[in-house]
């Protein structure tokens, strides 16, 4: 049957194409009447198709002049198939030629299959050259050099003096021993016999208990202490570096921050207080929390970078930091507790006032924060229980406002370096003489750090608002660090002392300078990073684009200056050796003379057997120990022997080399047979068995 194609332009074009293919005429589908053809000639009237021009068969073949026979249709079909076969042969021949292309010999080799051992080696190699690995190794090497000669004679010497450090060496040893033998009585230590909860008389350094499980005796305790002392500086350097890098600073700026935080001159006076030097967990935890929440100062909040694992790790590191002591851990807990509601309120404010604000939490991150926050809170609460017990049993241990006045530094303290500073120590001797508590009032963070921080107020990678906030925080910390020296502390320190639980136990406001130093380091990192960025821009204009030696030196000068200002002149005295008699003497025992310094040595000596000893040193003097010291002044006589027997003492050891100028200088050689006790000379000590 025939079909009218004139009304359908598509069909018209298709029919014309088919006609052209059969007749061999030019392909001019759809050319309207009156227009020129392809050769510029005018078409005839009948150039356009009409209803009689074409007919379509059932199988789609189109014939000319109205109809097409089956033979013509089959012929056309056979010709088309023949053309297709020829085309396929041509393509196959072209393919063969392409396969034989000699340039194929230069093609890339197939990817080599790598076995598990080689994959492990490659991954290890990448890890060894990673920024964080290099930063950790550099922090460790720098800690060994900057604390030298701590590791020169680690079995015999100790940094600063052999009073408080020997107490802290005992603390690590006791915690490890107690957790291995009798964890239920961890806080009932072998010192201050017969007092209860005696392990909580001072900051406990409980976080170092795993190290305390290794080795026994005084020499092992000294070696352990010296290693931990060096590692504490390495962790502080690495933690501050990681935090400032996470905030958005460059590598050189972060290095300046790490060194400035760990080796600030004022910290040299705290070399005898390991619980203060062990502050690296603070910036490290903050870095992990910021990384886990995908936040930095320079780039803002980036939800695609959040990671629940890092957030949880941050909370765990913060919990570990709390276990090292509340001296710096308590302010950290309050600051971290303040950051949480501020962050939540800020987010809700953005949701209310900023259209389509990004959600900062997924379920996984929210659960990590809840779990980590609970661990942190539970750790703080559990550790607070023994301290509250001590406060209940010894209410006089609470720090009074008078204690704060003694240790509150004046404004000039922020410019005075301690005697342990190799650069400024001797130069600042006259200024230190005006201070009542030099170790707690020499608070210089470093003149270079001051200069870099001030420069960071004007030339920095941080925004102007961020710089102003950092400045405001630094000023606030400085005012709090002055304690009662700033308008009597009525508007700064005393409100915290009166209203925050546990704050009354902090007698040294100057230790808040740790936070001031950290903020100064962030400001300084901003200026140094801006300097490094500028150096890179100048280097990009060179041919080749590589920084010259002067540009390299310019970016390293701030780091070198901060390092030089942190050099120490810390003494490393030889620790008195343990008397041989204490290795075999049965407890409970009393060592005479008994005073704060000697008792701290006795605590270290007791690490061989951990027998109960009456002696002990801490931040306060228990009334029981005070009465025992007073009763023992007449030892050996009937009254003192009866008193000591009454509290359970079985052995008294008198140190001959320390009795000069004491009541025992004359009585140590008196006969004791009438008293019913035994006396024996063992080396340089006299042992009395009651």
From TrEMBL:
The chain crosses the membrane at residues 128-148, 223-244, 251-268, 274-290, 310-328, 334-353, 365-388, 444-462, 469-492, 512-532. It comes from the Bacteria. Residues 1-13, 62-77 have a biased composition (Polar residues). Residues 78-92 have a biased composition (Basic and acidic residues). The keyword DNA repair does not apply. This is 4-amino-4-deoxy-L-arabinose transferase. Keywords: Membrane, Transmembrane, Transmembrane helix. Residues 1-104 are annotated as: Disordered. The keyword Membrane applies. It comes from Micromonospora zhanjiangensis. Signal peptide: none annotated. Residues 93-102 have a biased composition (Acidic residues).
